[in-house]
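Q&A log
Question type: sequence-to-structure
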Amino acid sequence: MNRNTKINALLLLVVAALAVLPLALGLGDHKEEPFAGADAEAETAITELQPDYEPWFSPLYEPPSGEIESALFALQAALGAGVLAYYFGLRRGRRQGAARAGAAGPADADASAAIPTATVTADHEGGPGGGSAGGPGA
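Response status: OK
Response body:
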């Protein structure tokens, strides 16, 4: 196993532990909703501290159930992850393309310099087939 594989395996193990340990240890069993989001926790704390508090704004859209709200949040997260993945993939592709062009650049420049090229000039004043070879006034 090389070093990167060991680090990746360790990180995967840590992420799995962060997901499983709160459930296995029963953290949050004393609450009505053990793993409620930060918004719900803040709302509960505000209501306990000031029962007559009136919110300044109301939501534009209130999903009919918690499952739909979770699904919309997951969709938002997936779209954000897709945009980020596209951006980083595009940057990596451009960087790799530039590296390939830089690596192949000097060899291609030598090869193109060895190929003779001819420059064609046209005398447009005389029209097709007309005019002198020396240009205007010759």
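Response note: The CA atoms of residues 43 and 120 lie 78 Å apart.
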